[in-house]
Amino acid sequence: MSVSRAFKVLVTHPQVPLPALELLRSRGAETIVCQSVPPSRDEILQKVAGVDAIYWAHYQPLNASILDAAGPKLRAVSTMSSGIDYADVAEFKRRQIPLGHTPGVVKNAVADLAIGLMIAAGRHFHAGRTSIETSQWVTERIDWLMGKEIRDSVIGFFGFGGISQAIAKRLQGWDVAKILYTTRTRKENDVDFKAEHVPFERLLGESDFLVVAAPLTDQTREKFNAQAFEQMKSSAVFVNVARGGLVKQSDLHEALITGQIFAAGLDVTTPEPLPANDPILKLPNCVVLPHMGTQTMKTTIEMSLLAANNIINAIDGKPMIRSAY
Ligand SMILES: O=C(O)[C@H](O)CO
C-alpha cells in the first residue's frame, strides 16, 4: 500500500543514489536535498525545519540539536550506514522517533574487504610495496617477506553478525583449522559455519587471524588494548573492519612494533580521516585503508534503498525494516 499523502524528506547529501530518491518520490515524498559536500551542518539545520523525515547520509552527529531543529512533525529518520555510533539513540528512544539504519546489506562488500585485509596484512603487502619503492627488493634472502596463510589457521571473530558470518561462509572452502567467535550469547546458527562460541580470552589466545566486526558501544570501546594484545599469539594477524574505537590504537601500534602480534589490517581507525603523518602508517606490518568497506556501487545502492524503505515504512505507520532500537 502506498503512502496516501505528501510528506517532506530532508536528504542530507547530494550524492544519495537516484533510485533511492525516485523510490521516495514515487511514494509521495517531496525531497529536499542538501547540496554541500562535505555536508554542512548549517545547511542541514536551515533546511530541516518542518520536515516529516530525515534521510541521514553521512557521519555527523545525529542528535537532539537536529531533532529540535526539525520540530514536531518529524516521524522518521534513517541513516545510510550500518554503524550508528554517531547517533544519540537514547534521545531517539526518549522522543519515540523511529530511527532506521542499513545493516545486513553491507555484509558482502565488507566481508570481501576483510578477507582482502587478512591476506594483505598476513602476506606483507604494505612492506612488499614499500620495498620496491625504496629499492630494497631482497631477492637473495629465502626468508624475505615470509607471511601467514589462511589454510590451517584458526580464524577468530569478535562479533558474529552478518559480516562475520559472510566471512565465515566464504572461508568454508579455504581449509581453515577452526572458526571461533566471541559474542555475548551463542548464535544458534553457528553450526552452519562450523563455528565455536568461546570466551574472549580463548579467542585472543587461540586465533591466528582475529577479525573484529562488532558495533562500537560502551561495552566494546577499546576492548582491544595492551592487555588484549598481550594475550594474542605473536604470530597473529589482527583485522578491524568495524570501528576504530574498538581498538586502543596506541596499544596496537606498540604491539606491532614490539612483535607482540605479527601484523594488522585496518579499514577503520581513530581518528577518521587519519592524518597523513600518523605513526601507524609508517609500520611495515600494518595495512591501513580509509574506511572503504561498503564502497561498491552495488552495496551503496542497496544501502540507499533500505534507508528509503525504512522511512517509507515509518511514514506508513509500519515498523522500519531495520530499526536501530
Ligand atoms: O557502518 C557502515 O555502514 C560502514 O562502516 C560504512 O560506514
Q: What's the helix-strand series?
A: EHEHEHEHEHHEHEEHEHEHEEH
Radius of gyration, in angstroms, nearest whole number: 22 Å
Fourth CATH level, the homologous superfamily of the largest domain: NAD(P)-binding Rossmann-like Domain
pLDDT averaged over residues: 97
Please state the overall shape, judged from the principal axes of the Cα atoms.
Answer: elongated
Pfam families: 2-Hacid_dh (PF00389), 2-Hacid_dh_C (PF02826)
Domain D-isomer specific 2-hydroxyacid dehydrogenase NAD-binding: 115-293
Family: Belongs to the D-isomer specific 2-hydroxyacid dehydrogenase family.
Protein name: Glyoxylate reductase/hydroxypyruvate reductase
What does it look like?
Helix content is 32%, strand content 15%. It is of the alpha/beta class. The chain folds into two domains: 95 residues, NAD(P)-binding Rossmann-like Domain (Rossmann fold, 3-Layer(aba) Sandwich); 183 residues, Rossmann fold. The strands form two sheets. A seven-stranded parallel beta sheet has the order 8-7-6-9-10-11-12. Helix 1 packs parallel to helix 11. The radius of gyration is 22 Å and the shape is elongated. (2R)-2,3-dihydroxypropanoic acid binds next to loops. It comes from Drosophila grimshawi (Hawaiian fruit fly). One of its GO terms (cellular component) is cytosol.
